[in-house]
Write a structure and sequence with these properties.
This protein is an alpha/beta fold and 287 residues long. It folds into two domains: 8-89 and 201-282, 3-Layer(aba) Sandwich (Rossmann fold), CATH 3.40.50; 99-197, Rossmann fold, CATH 3.40.50.1000. The chain is 31% helix and 18% strand. It has helices at residues 39-50, 65-74, 88-97, 149-157, 181-190, 203-217, 233-243, 256-259, 264-272, and strands at residues 8-9, 22-25, 54-59, 84-87, 104-107, 131-134, 161-164, 170-173, 176-179, 194-197, 226-230, 246-250, 280-282. Strand 11 (226-230), helix 7 (233-243) and strand 12 (246-250) form a beta-alpha-beta unit. The longest helix is centred in the C-terminal third of the chain and has 15 residues, at 203-217.
């Protein structure tokens, strides 16, 4: 959305459900908070599908979709709530595959190892690497991007390209905000490093999601019949705008401190100060 008109406030997705044939829905912050799923969001997604709207979950998780399916199953999210899943990890694997055999330094926790499983991506130390794969922080409870200042400076001095598997700057985990790979990648760019991003708001992940939806629906979907739901201005809302989809902002996510305990007038003021604005806003995803 551009211009000065206020963001349309929603009390439930059902108010606009008949406008869309396809919904791209963020996962972390909308469907769950990293600890538990949100029952109202699950109901909303299920009802969308019952009415004929396809749902593709799009997440910047730096892991293949199978890992996310297992996670959602563990949270009790029924498979009736979605048609397909696309992760930044899926897109990232293609980027890594294009560098087959090149020595890589992996910056991120071992829980992201499934991302490179089966790929020709030999790991090495920072001084021997041809490129850097950043999936997150080694310890996102204790570290910050500043923790890696010297490491990043060394990469920049050698002009090493970085692949960022998760463009998110932060994510909510059980009520706490923790930094993500995108924050490290941004710090690297700020000192002159070159970064390729695998996920939202960049176009490739949306193209994959649209392709999966059209395959399942058996036909093309018009851009003006697509909405994208998320809780992050920089990734979800910016990505929706760039792809031509209607952006729906969930307020009770990573921007909750700015948006939840204030009036709608104050929310509109906050949106007006951002680089991108959603078409609609809703406190939580509910039907």
């Amino acid at each position: 959305m551009t211009g000065s008109e206020p963001v349309a406030a929603l009390s439930g997705f059902s108010e606009i459900a008949d406008r869309f044939d396809l919904c791209f829905c963020d996962v972390w912050g909308v469907v769950h908070n990293g600890v538990a799923a949100f029952p109202d969001a699950i109901e909303a997604l299920t009802r969308m599908r019952e009415r004929g709207t396809s749902v593709v979950l799009i997440t910047n998780a730096p892991r293949p979709r199978d890992a996310i399916i297992r996670q959602l199953d563990g949270f009790g999210v029924p498979r009736a709530a979605w048609d397909a899943i696309v992760t930044s990890g899926d897109v990232c694997r293609a980027l890594i595959g294009a560098r087959a055999g090149q020595p890589m330094f992996r910056l991120g926790p071992d829980r992201d190892l499934p991302l490179i499983a089966g790929l020709d991506a030999p790991e090495t130390g920072p001084d021997q690497a041809s490129y850097v794969l950043c999936t997150g922080l080694f310890d996102d409870e204790a570290d910050t991007p500043a923790t890696y200042a010297d490491l990043l400076a060394g990469f920049a001095a050698r002009d090493l390209p970085m692949i960022c598997a998760n463009p998110d700057l932060v994510v909510e985990r059980g009520g706490h905000i923790v930094p993500c790979a995108g924050a490290v990648a941004l710090a690297y760019e700020e000192i002159g490093g070159t970064v390729t991003y695998a996920g939202k708001p960049h176009r490739p992940i949306y193209e994959v999601a649209l392709g999966l939806a059209e395959e399942k629906r058996g036909g093309a979907v018009a851009r003006d019949r697509i909405c994208a739901i998320g809780d992050a201005i920089r990734t979800d809302i910016a990505g929706a705008a760039a792809f031509g989809a209607a952006g729906i902002m969930v307020l009770a996510g990573i921007h909750a401190q700015d948006l939840m305990q204030v009036s709608w007038e104050e929310r509109h003021g906050w949106f007006g100060r951002q680089t991108h604005r959603p078409d609609y806003a809703i406190p939580h995803l509910v039907w």
